[in-house]
Amino acid sequence: MRRILVTGASGGLGRAIAAHYARPGAELLLWGRDKERLDAVAAACRAAGAQASIRSLDLSAEDAAVAALMAEDAAGAIDIAIFASGLGDIRAEGALVEDPALVIRLGKVNFVAPAAMAAALADAMARRGEGRIVLIGSAAAFHALPFAAAYAGTKAGLARFADALRLAVRPYGVGVTLVSPGFIDTASGRKVPGPKPMILTPEKAAAIVARAAERKQAHVVAPGIFALLRWFDRLLPAFLRDRLLSSLTPPGR
Ligand SMILES: NC(=O)c1ccc[n+]([C@@H]2O[C@H](COP(=O)([O-])OP(=O)(O)OC[C@H]3O[C@@H](n4cnc5c(N)ncnc54)[C@H](OP(=O)(O)O)[C@@H]3O)[C@@H](O)[C@H]2O)c1
User: Fold this and answer.
1) pLDDT (average), residues 78-92
2) Which keywords appear in this protein's UniProt record, sorted alphabetically (predicted)?
3) For 2-246, which CATH class?
4) Beta strands in the chain (DSSP E)
5) Å from CA of 59 to ligand 1 middle
């Protein structure tokens, strides 16, 4: 039996990841906040032949989240942990920058909680010499988006954390994969105003995440155009890059 943790399983991407892994021989630990949606995801996974349990908790209570994770792992070793929970947001209409309370919330949910949980689990996995951790970042991590400084910043932090954690635990048989998607057609993805080029269905994004984990890849940016944009951002002369990024404003903001 393969024990697989999916955080954010009540949301668009997490639900699709759960469905991707739902088959006989899989035991899914489905985390989120909304119990009703988690129950529905678990029922669908059971119908596909998997075992599934749910846990409803708010990741902004990061100490409790780490304790719950370690209890799950002590009850039965987690083979794959996919940290797909996250909050997407941009500055409010008419605001110059994001509200400080939102910056704190994004910091906790997008960086502090997943990083702390990944660190705790990586340590436990290293002791038994196996395991895979998958962190869901964002292509936004690679660009200084003036209207989404907190989102871009938290995902940038997570990307650097994933890379460093990967190097720290690789000698002990533990793999760390970062997936940085562009746009995904989910509830939070649809909230971002403006065009969303090359938008992925949640199912396609889930398949990309699972393939990256299976191939033991360090980092996947998908779709590939966002990997090109990342290089473009790095290679542009600073004054041109600043001018370009400063001109970016979602419609209505
Ligand atoms: N959609 C996109 O365009 C896009 C692009 C790049 C990267 N991503 C990343 O992909 C991941 C999944 O996003 P999504 O599009 O599937 O978003 P979503 O549909 O809004 O789902 C987000 C998930 O995160 C959970 N979550 C949010 N805040 C939480 C908290 N405080 N405590 C516990 N769980 C919490 C939600 O739980 P509840 O619903 O139960 O509250 C939900 O399960 C995120 O990390 C996001 O940053 C998304």
Assistant:
1) 94
2) Oxidoreductase
3) alpha beta
4) 2-7, 26-32, 51-56, 80-83, 131-136, 174-181, 219-222
5) 11
Tell me how far the alpha carbon of residue 10 lies from the centroid of ligand 1, in angstroms. Answer: 8
Give pLDDT tens digits for 206-225. Answer: 999 999 999 999 999 999 99
Six token digits for residue 139: 């292509």
Instruction: Quote the DSSP letter at residue 223.
Output: S
Strands (E), 63-222: 80-83, 131-136, 174-181, 219-222
Cα–Cα distance for residue pair 39/47, rounded to 1 Å: 12
Q: What is the DSSP letter of 199?
A: P
Convert 118-153 to b/e letters by CB count within 10 Å (16 or more is b): bebbbebbbeeeebbbbbbbbbbbbbbbbbbbbbbb
- Residue tagged 């980092």 (tokens): 219
Ligand 1 centre from 243 Cα, in Å? 31
Residue reference for tokens 């290089």: 231
Bridge-based pairing of strands 80-83 and 219-222 is unpaired
> Minimal CA–CA distance to 2: which of 62, 35, 45, 43?
45
Tens digits of residue pLDDT in 116-140: 999 999 999 999 999 999 999 999 9
| Cβ pair 113, 62 in contact under 8 A | yes
